[in-house]
Amino acid sequence: MELYLNDNRIESIPEDIVHMTNLQTIDISNNQLMKFPEPLVYLEQLTSLIYSQQNGKHIGRLPADFINLCNLKKLDLSHNIFKDVPTMIYNLAKLEYLNMSYNLLSSIDNNRLKRLKNFKTLKLNGNNFVSFSSTLYQLETLNMNENAMCLAPPNDFIDENYISAASNLYVQIHDQHETNMFEIYQQIFIEHLTSYDIENLAKRFKLSETDMNNFRNNSTNLKRDNKIELLLNIWKEKRGSLANSDTLYRLAHLIGDTNLVRHM
User: Fold this and answer.
1) If you count DSSP H runs as helices and E runs as strands, how many of each does the chain have, helices first?
2) Class of 2-143 in CATH
3) C or N: which end of the chain has fewer Cβ atoms within 10 Å?
């Protein structure tokens, strides 16, 4: 059973809603509720709850009994005023999708999030994050545009007080300088890769068979530096802008430090 009450001027939810025991989806977005309606926490069969308040009254907390919604798979709390991810969300074992875009978040408990075995999609656009743990990139979908992102390397890139060349780029280059960034990445490859490594790198880029054939056919008579340039351009064309944080992380991960490059 589904119930859509979105885009109205609702100020309260009647307590009788608790009798809708088969309700699985409810959308109460863009209404005039002063706080999260507590009767909803007794709808234990809910799998999808949408409470996005772009054009409604915002909330910044959830009731403690929200944990009763143990069957939730999709939760949308976008366009509210949460400063932290509510603790009970990390205990929703079946959760697959969380949208907390356009709130006031600046951190997320990555360790607790990793315990959600079914979790796939996280949307954090329009918050106050300055960096993200690289483990978040393992999710199927991670949206984080419109944050106060800086390129300081996350702790994941720092190993025993050694910062890789790729990590240094996070400090030295702002993500809007697309051309300069690409040239510096290219130079790192040129300095560290042998001709033998180039073929291995092409495999690690997981290019399609068509792109691999394109690279091999067009690089036969090229010098090593030009081969690297061609390979990076093919990869970049498929991945999109290097200024995109997801792309930047993936390329930095592929580069690693000098020792990693030598043992590819």
Assistant:
1) 8, 9
2) alpha beta
3) N
